[in-house]
Structures are given as structure tokens and as C-alpha cells.
Amino acid sequence: MKLTLKIWRQKNAQAKGQMVTYPIDGIDGDMSFLEMMDVLNNELINKGDDPVVFDHDCREGICGSCSMFINGEAHGPDRLVTTCQLHMRKFKDGDTITIEPFRAGGFPVIKDLMVDRSAFDRIQHAGGFISINTSGNTQDANAIPIEKADADAAFDAATCIGCGACVASCKNSSAMLFVSAKVSQFALLPQGKVEATDRVMNMVKQMDEEGFGNCTNTGACEVECPKGISLENIARMNREYMSASMKG
User: Fold this and answer.
1) Looking at the predicted structure, is the pLDDT value of residue 81 above 70?
2) Domain boundaries 118-247, corresponding CATH code
3) Domain extents in the chain
């Protein structure tokens, strides 16, 4: 395939960025999107130009690093996949593809398509954990009875990889789908009850301090989430927050 790539280039968070057009040829439909970017970067390096900086790690849809906004959609036109799992057969010969970083106040640009998502780490550190005894008196998890529906819902919430597609897709740059997934995975399990009140209060507080917006139930976050995290988690987090506020 022959393609025209319009890519956002920006030296750092303070620099003024711009869209730069790159023609590319010889792209196979079985290539992943990141492999296509590798081909472009090899061409740029051979010409003595700076390669396009983008984030990636596992390339298996697990780590959530490959955060790109492709033709106006987080992770591109496919559903329930990350950018590294997006294949070029989703595009046609002669297509123009616009590639931008995830844009949000809480995700400042590092360079080109790479953004700083450490805000998610700070939210997680604020309460996304449980305290358990690991000093030789640990109870076997299988010894704790849990309703299957609760276990399944907790597992579904835990599949969130923290990629930030929910933030990039939201008109308010809200991180509530991410935060609610991290709250839900513990709220549904007995192991998470000990810190339940502090967890939701601290994580929501940190989310607000990081500059993310609020949820207005548009639903774009759920549609663009590569793991299909449900909006039901936001409703659960709101209930947890209300309950914690009344206790506090």
C-alpha cells in the first residue's frame, strides 16, 4: 500500500508542535500499525532525519503503552484492540492517516506522540492497593467464598491496562473510567473492604488534583477502551464515593 501519514511532531511539552506529512510505500496489510511506524522511522533515519518518537513496550496488547490517536480515534478504527494490535488491513491503498498523541491536560507531551501518563501511577498509588498479611500467616485466596458474579465483575474491571484511551476519547478528558475500574476491582472483593473508604476518597482526590475532567455520561470512553471496561464501574465508584463521604 501507498499511504500518506500526517503526524504530530513536537520536540517537548513547551515547544510548539505541528503536523508533518510523510508519504510511505510498500506497506503490507498484515503489518501492525507499529511495524508500519518502524518502517517510516527506518526511512527517516536513513535520510538523517529524526525518527518519530512513540511509546511502546510489549506489543501484545497488555501494557497499554502504545497510545496514539489515529484518524480521530484512540488506538485507531478497530475495536477492543490497542494500537500495537491494529493491523494495516484496516486501511486502504491511498489512504491519508492522521496520527496524534493522546491530548489531555493530565497527559503532557514528552515528544512527538509520546505523552507522560505518570498521573495514572499517582492515582494508583493514592489507593489502588490492599493491605494483607504476608508474614507467614497468609490465607489461601481459594478459602474465601466469593459470589461468581462479583468475582467475574472484579476480574473484568481488573483487565484495565491504564492506557489512557478513555481520557483521550472524553470531551472532558475525564479519567473516571480508569479510576472506577481500579476502585471496582477491589470494591467487589472482601480483600478490598479494609481500605474501601480511604481508597475511593484518595483516588478521586488525586484524579482531581491531576487536572482530569468529570464524567458527563457520553460513553465515548467505553466505546474506545481496548479492554471494553464498562460504564457500570463509574456508577459503582460513585456509589462507593457517596458511601465513603457519609462515613467521613
Assistant:
1) yes
2) 1.10.1060.10
3) 3-111, 118-247
